[in-house]
Amino acid sequence: MLAEHLLHTAGAIERVGSVEAGTTHSDFDPLENKRQISLSASVLPVDWKGCKVNLIDVPGYPDFIGDLHGVARVVESMIIVAEAKADLDVGFDLAWEAADAAGLGRAIFVNKLERDNADYEGLLNTLRARFGTRIVPLHLPLGKQTAFSGVVDVLTMKAYKGKDREAHAEEIPAELAAEAASLREKLIDAAAEADDDLAMKYLGGEDLTPEEIYRGLRAGVQSGHIVPVLVGSAASGVGCGLLLDEIVNVLPSPVDKVHEFDGKRLEPDPNAPLVAFVFKSTADPYVGKVNYIRIFSGTLKVDDHVDNTTQEHDERVHNLYFVRGKHQEPAAAVSAGDICAAAKLQNTKTGDTLAAPKSKIVLPPVQFPEPIYRIAIRPVAKTDEDKLGPALGKLLEEDPTLRYVRDAALHQEILEGMGDIHLENVIDKLRTRFGVNVTIEDAKVPYRETIRAKAQAQGRHKRQTGGKGQFGDCWIRLEPLPRGSGFEFGNEVVGGAIPKNFIPAVEKGIRETMEQGFLAGYPVVDVKATVYDGSYHEVDSSEMAFKIAGSLAFKNAAEKCSPVILEPILELEVDVPDECVGDVVGDLNGRRGRLQGMDPIAPGKTRVRALVPMATMMRYALDLRSITKGRGRFRQKFSHYDELPPNEQQELVKQYQKMLAEREG
Hints:
By secondary structure, the protein is an alpha+beta fold. It is built from 16 helices and 35 strands. It starts with a helix and ends with a helix.
């Protein structure tokens, strides 16, 4: 809604849409209208006082954090919208960390000041406690809670009443004059400290002009030493004109910030060689693929031949657009500092660099967060099965935080993402965009089987059917290998007990049996099998007979080798507020987790490290959100396989035997 009012204030649209009616320019996807939250970043350019401003509205919901990281790579500044209350939302922390990682200037827009329980002072105290003197208010709210009616600009010392385009300047009310004057003095101090020339002038007793103050503020925002605080209402549009003023006057522009990647400076010069970055892609069954591009250097023109230096191939640019939400305006050329979209680039995706022909520059890809939640999907019908792969391929290009794995061992199609809402949205897209219907199942745990002791056994296959018979006979020795070793096969047959041409068949029979498992149907790992003796028949022996013999020998030997089921163990890092550490550790203990350590990572935050069985982590993304009220975040990666507790092994074996009995019955 804030973006909607900014568009209206700047004259880019004539009527303000609403989230409830599904008529905002930033949330135009039917699924966004259905959920009434942003699911994807929207580019919303406006012209304000002679400047083009590329606003990009980014989802605030943690499940859709991917676009936040992609967009942070291609902008100079971030405006974080915070509700007027004493505590900060989860989205604030995510946005702040992304801005920190990308080295962005930032400002805070305090929203919802018109509400009954609005607490501007409480929020300001929280911000100052966390970020200190970096917090510099540029505005004061005019009236409190339901009486909120406008904004005081402490630099110009004027009050602006009214909303949106109707705001008009007035004198500051007497009761706010002293506070505004005090804030103005602190603001000028901060501006002077950010620029050596201004500091000399200011310390010499001279007054700074408004232009000089803006120059100092811009330098301070760019360096991160100043974070301006602005106020208003996204519901009514109060403060939007002043917000646009501060964007133009205070926040760094492409001219102010020269981007550097791997030591390469990209000057925002339209006449320099082209260097551009694809920060977002969308897939549509009718329109095709659309790539959103930031031009860092040079100019991109229609009909240009450019090099995709990431993929090492060339592209022909057929269509260029300036976009505003879902609306597209054809563009003949797009210069350094600007953002555009290109349709139907054949082999270009998110994270790719487009550059002038023969250029070797490759901008580093965006580091997107790894998926933390997984489900299994199953196509409803044969037609869905045929369309699933191509549809998911398009969605994977569109969303770098999505993963798709076809697990042959588990016979499941696995989707991994950032949370339940994220994956629900993917399922909705499959249905509404591509006509693919799937059902959702719990993702299975990729258990493994292995052995703990050494043993040997015979495998003998003999069958006579009237014609040519079948005969294969082998002795094998099984022994355990260290964790993670996989499988080794050895041949110690001497004297021609088994002809050499049948040895590979023995190995093949063992390998195929290992894939199917023998305890609970899971693949067998970390085993060495050695064939050391056997016999054959001149007429009846064949590769198939020795393959069956190898399989029988493996099963017979494995039963004597103290077989055991292994479970995957995850290496887990959980970042949580200090007050939640006890609850998080207690929860991990209940998941059979082994605590590895705790480290302070920021004031009021602790990182908990643990090794935890994957089987207990399938819903952890949802459970951690509940335990920490959304403030906990975690990363996980595979660590190793370890033995499953005996009682749980017995349960898996029992389930497997029941399944076999039902199948035979």
